[in-house]
Amino acid sequence: MKLISFDIDGTLTEGDPPGILTMDLVREVKAQGFLVGSCSDRPISAQRAMWERHGIPVDFAVSKHMLPDVKSQFEASVYYHIGDREDLDKKPAEAAGFEFLWPHEAVDMPWLE
Questions:
Q1: Counting C-beta atoms within 10 Å of the first and last residue's C-beta, which end of the chain has fewer, N or C?
Q2: Measuring CA to CA, which residue among 56, 60, 61, 59 is closest to residue 24?
Q3: Cα torsion through 54, 103, 88, 18, rounded to 10
C-alpha cells in the first residue's frame, strides 16, 4: 500500500492558483488502492468540502504541520507528498519521512500499474 498526500493550491487544478494535477489523476490513484488525502494550508473543512464536491472519498485531510501524524496513522510501503513550495511543502514532507515530488514530477510517475 502506498500513500499520497496532495497539497492543493499550486498543485491541483482545483487550487488557487491552479496547479497541473487533475482530479482525474487523484481518482485514478485512489482506484488503484492508494491511500489518498490532502495536506494544505486550507482549513480542513474546506479541504473535505473540495473532495466531496468532486466525489472523491479521501483517507485524510490535514493541515501542513500534520504530516507526521498522517505517517503514524497509516501503514504504507511508501509515503509521498506532492506540493509546489520548497519551504511549505518539500522541507516539512522530508522532515516527516515522506518522499517529495513537485507536481511536474508527479505527472511523470507511473502511478497506474
A1: C
A2: 56
A3: -50
pTM of the model: 0.95
The owner of cell 494544505 is: 40
Report the amino acid identity of residue 81.
H
C-alpha cell of residue 63:
493541515
What pLDDT, in 10s, does the model give residues 21-47?
Answer: 999 999 999 999 999 999 999 999 999
DSSP-derived letter for residue 109 is S
Spatial separation of the C-alpha atoms in residues 40 and 32, rounded to whole Å: 23
CB 42 within 8 A of CB 8: yes
Give dist(CA 66, CA 69) in Å, integer. Answer: 5
